[in-house]
Specification:
- This protein is mainly alpha-helical.
- It folds into 3 domains: 264 residues, no CATH class; 70 residues; 125 residues, no CATH class.
- The chain is 58% helix and 5% strand.
- A 4-stranded mixed β-sheet has the order 3-4-6-5, with no helix packed on it.
- Strand 1 and strand 2 form a beta hairpin.
- Helix 6 packs parallel to helix 9.
- The radius of gyration is 25 Å and the shape is globular.
- The relative contact order is 0.10.
Length: 555
């Protein structure tokens, strides 16, 4: 079989630069898209490692962190060293991974379908999964990047018959494993298994042992040293690994798990979910243009990757690595559909994204949070709808969708003020004294990034043992609440530590997901009143901070 032409470097460069620009937009804002796993774990772990001068063993909350491997934390430390402790610097891991995943999808399309692959990369950038996770400092996007890289190198090795590519594929899989853990195999093995069954020419089993040995040898050589060293240094490593895999995931399976898994696929591929479903259905019709072994390979890769999540507790972002094969399916479906069904699916997808964009934009305008950015986003949304309703080709609607996502998430959302830190806080004084957080919501979210050091919990046992001379932040529901005994007031008075209120401020903060930011006790009545008065203050939570110990001013 004649190998395909080499990938178009110009197209790959364009996709990468375009992806970097649209995903980087808004990453420097403290009020941008975030979540507790980002601001409380991923951003702070490298800070504590740097403070302890510990670069092989991970640390968080003054404890050894054994739950995750170190590769992404090493990358963030590198960016901190290079650019300073900046929020956008940490989030480069998401931006680069999202842009890189789009490039690899472009190259994989070229390998499989012989086109230039430009739109395949654009589809990746036009999905909600990459638009959201590509601008956060999390482990899932790098996992998706490395697993896609490994799949692409396997396809290249199969087509080009070059042994070194199998070794490179093993190295990429090691990168995925060191990014988040052994779950990388959940996304690579389905691609290899279905590829072996469906693709032609199929190599004989006797000829596979050398590539398999090279692939597996490089993978084990690169991925094993860190976990083996953790096992030797910390006896509880295997127990912690078992807790993460079995107790936290497999033991929490429920009847909702399959529904959660399928809904996660639809959410990650939004607004092109209906296109994906149409492709999955039509590909099984033998007379349809979508009935192609290459398409069936993509379907098998997708379905087998999703199947394990039927039997474990998961979140949408855990399945980020499915987006390249899902995006290829979406692109091929739009290519091979007739004009009429393609028009319908493009219009439905554009309307769905337009609704989301208009909700965010009009919300910002109604409450006087933003005007020009909302107005520009509305104009971009009108352009999206115009292209979807006037053109039969998906090119411009896809590009328009990428820009709409970029402005909604990177420009409009940050201006809503979620997790905002006021300038009135005595930042200079806070930088010179200990600072802690006493809140089950781990708020303020971006306190560590603003101070440039990891801000830990102010734990009651430490207060009693050592006293505390500094500042402590807490949320309103845990301050002098008569229904709770573990409030900051109770903790400080029990420890005999004098304190005084240094300040308070209202704020939205993200709870569980970035889309939920109103106060926990907010209900329909509070929202109706807010819309009636065009005032959001009644929906905000209150954060207080106190001075403690010898910082308390005496009259």
């Amino acid at each position: 079989m004649k190998p395909p032409p080499r990938p178009g470097i110009t197209v790959a460069k364009v996709i990468f630069v375009f992806g970097f620009i649209v995903l980087f937009l808004g990453t420097g804002w403290e009020t941008g898209v975030t979540g507790k796993d980002e601001y409380w774990v991923t951003l702070r772990t490298p800070l504590e490692m740097m403070e302890r001068d510990s670069y092989w063993t991970l640390w968080l909350n003054d404890e050894v962190r054994l739950q995750k491997p170190p590769l992404i934390y090493w990358a963030i430390i590198g960016f901190y060293r290079l650019f300073g402790i900046q929020l956008w610097a940490a989030r480069l891991v998401g931006v680069l991974s999202g842009a890189g995943m789009a490039v690899l999808t472009t190259l994989l399309y070229r390998r499989l379908f012989k086109g230039n692959g430009f739109l395949a990369g654009i589809v990746v950038l036009a999905t909600a999964g990459v638009a959201v996770e590509g601008r956060r400092a999390m482990l899932d996007m790098p996992l998706g990047l490395f697993t896609t890289w490994s799949v692409y190198l396997c396809v290249a090795a199969w087509q080009d018959k070059k042994a070194w590519l199998w070794g490179a594929a093993g190295a990429a899989l090691a990168g995925a494993t060191l990014a988040k853990g052994p779950q990388s195999l959940l996304f690579l093995l389905p691609a290899l298994i279905t590829g072996f069954v469906l693709m032609r020419p199929r190599p004989g089993l006797k000829t596979l042992w050398k590539p398999a040995l090279l692939f597996g040898g490089i993978f084990l050589m690169l991925s094993l040293p860190w976990p083996l060293s953790m096992r030797a240094l910390h006896g509880e490593f295997l127990e912690e690994l078992n807790t993460q895999i079995v107790d936290q995931r497999l033991s929490r399976v429920s009847l909702k798990s399959p529904i959660n898994a399928l809904s996660s696929v639809l959410l990650l591929t939004f607004p092109w979910s209906f296109v994906l479903v149409a492709g999955l259905v039509l590909a099984w019709r033998k007379a349809h243009p979508l009935h192609d072994k290459r398409v069936l390979w993509l379907i098998g890769w997708l379905l087998l990757s999703v199947l394990p999540f039927f039997f474990m507790r998961s979140f949408e972002r855990y399945m980020i690595p499915i987006l390249p094969c899902a995006s290829l399916l979406i692109h091929v479906t739009l290519e091979r559909l007739g004009d009429r069904p393609r028009k319908i699916l493009l219009r439905v997808s554009a309307i769905l994204l337009a609704i989301v964009a208009l909700v965010f934009s009009l919300f910002g305008m109604w409450f006087h949070l933003t005007f020009y950015s909302s107005l520009f986003t509305i104009c971009m949304t009108i352009w999206l709808l115009w292209t979807a309703f006037t053109e039969t080709r998906p090119d411009r609607p896809l590009i328009a969708a990428v820009w709409v996502f970029a402005f909604v998430l990177g420009v409009v959302y940050p201006r809503l003020g979620v997790n905002a830190l006021p300038d009135e806080i005595p930042w200079d004084d806070l930088r010179q004294h200990p600072v802690g957080i006493y809140s089950r919501y781990s708020q303020p979210a971006m306190l560590s990034m603003r101070l440039g050091r990891s801000v830990d919990f102010a734990r009651e046992d430490r207060l009693v043992a050592d006293g505390y001379h500094g500042y402590i932040f807490t949320t309103r529901d845990q301050y002098r609440d008569p229904e709770r005994v573990d409030t900051l007031h109770h903790a400080l008075t029990s420890a005999g530590i004098p304190y005084e209120i240094a300040g308070r401020y209202p704020v939205f903060f993200s709870r569980r997901t970035w889309i939920r930011f109103a106060a926990p006790e907010s209900g329909p009545d509070e929202w109706r009143e807010a819309f009636r008065t065009r005032n959001l203050e009644g929906l905000k939570s209150e954060i207080l901070f106190v001075r403690t110990g010898n910082l308390v001013e005496t009259p």
